[in-house]
Design brief:
mainly alpha, single chain
Length: about 70
Amino acid sequence: MNEDRWIDIESKIAFQEDLLQELNATVYRQQKKIDHLEAVCNSLIEHVRALTEAVDSKPGGGALNERPPHY
């Protein structure tokens, strides 16, 4: 009986070690994806800022204050 308990405990420990490695790999992949998405968001923010500054620097306020062509 004692030998069966040791085998059961060793099996559970091996399963938990495997699960822990799988979870670590999942967390690592998710962090890489988060880092990439943050970089994309920052790039988009800078792009929108640059476009806003370009529009604001136009005489007359840019395209936001232009009359539509049908007027």
